[in-house]
Amino acid sequence: MKITILGAGNVATHMAAALFSAGHIIVQVYSRTPQNARLLAKQVQAEAIGNLNDVSTSTDMYLISVKDDVIEEIVAALAHHQKLIVHTSGATTLQILTTYIQQAGVFYPLQTFSKSKAIDFSQVPMCVEGANEEITALLQQLAQSITQNVYLVSSEQRKILHLSAVFACNFPNYLYYIAQQLLAQQQLSFDLLRPLILETAEKVQQQFPADVQTGPAVRKDEKTMDAHIALLNAQPDVQHLYQLLSQAIIKMGEHKHLVS
Questions:
Q1: What is the distance between the alpha carbons of residues 107 and 63, in angstroms, rounded to a whole number?
Q2: How far apart, in whole angstroms, are the C-alpha atoms of residue 209 and residue 178?
Q3: Would 130 disulfide with which of 16, 75, 95, 136, CB 3.0-4.6 Å?
Q4: Residue numbers of the domain that contains 241
Q5: DSSP E strands: which ranges in the chain?
Q6: Pair (9, 129) in one structural domain
Q7: Domain stop point among 83, 118, 153
Q8: What is the chain's mean pLDDT, rounded?
């Protein structure tokens, strides 16, 4: 398949590389930052462009992988070419595309991406949605060429999926940051926590979170929680977050006890 990539950020970089490795032809890479376009284009043997007026029509699909608030601007500029247009956003509906063109779809990889870290794309869940059955089938086939995990996910489902991913990935990472700052106060290395973080992540690969919850809150260990809260007196925002999360864990434990 001939594909033009609109974007050169984290998702676009990994997506372009995966598609290229699977044998698809990357025709062009567009980015408002010419250097980024050139770097990615070189990796996938494509032409780098920095102006939407230079987008080629000798392509089967335009794959938009940019910040959510730029998607509509790009699809509006490309719709007159009457080519299949697809975006990779988890939080943006299909309708933002179909407002301009009926040949549209969503090709959403559920993973956290960084340019500096390699990803085994064959394990990445790909969530696809098409404006019609033909496009849906095409996107399924495309997804199957780069991953073993392909799911049909509607725009409404994808909103909740993306929200769930924020809770499962973005928020925990911020909590890791808080933990790192607390350790630094006592000249302790974050390396001390890495095995704990890994073990916690591995547990939920086989069991549900409520079944593997540990710590003072689930035990209702008031003495320990009070001691922790006192240690955070100088950091009221973190202290409030500790209290909020502890109360939520207590409620989760009580609910689990009631339904078990």
A1: 8
A2: 21
A3: 136
A4: 159-259
A5: 2-6, 25-30, 47-49, 61-64, 84-87, 104-109, 126-130, 150-152
A6: yes
A7: 153
A8: 97
Dig out the tokens for 191 from the structure: 């390396």
Both 242 and 195 in one domain: the answer is yes
Least-confidence region, from 45-54, 114-123, 238-247: 114-123
**Is residue 23 left, alpha or beta, with left meaning phi > 0 and alpha meaning psi from -120 to 50?**
left
CATH number at residue 89: 3.40.50.720
* Angle, alpha carbons 71-151-159 (nearest 5°): 45
Residues 55 and 164 in one domain: no
61-64/47-49 β-pairing: unpaired
Token reading at 143:
């997804």
Q: How many CB atoms lie within 10 A of CB 89?
A: 19
Q: Find the CATH number of the domain harbouring 213.
A: 1.10.1040.20
Q: What is the dihedral of CA 141, 147, 148, 152, to 10 degrees?
A: -50
Question: Residue 256 has what pLDDT?
Answer: 72
Q: How many domains does the chain have?
A: 2
Record the pTM: 0.91
pLDDT digits (tens, 9 = 90+) for 171-214: 999 999 999 999 999 999 999 999 999 999 999 999 999 999 99
Question: Are both 125 and 191 inside the same structural domain?
Answer: no
- Both 212 and 238 in one domain: the answer is yes
Q: Is the same domain home to 134 and 190?
A: no
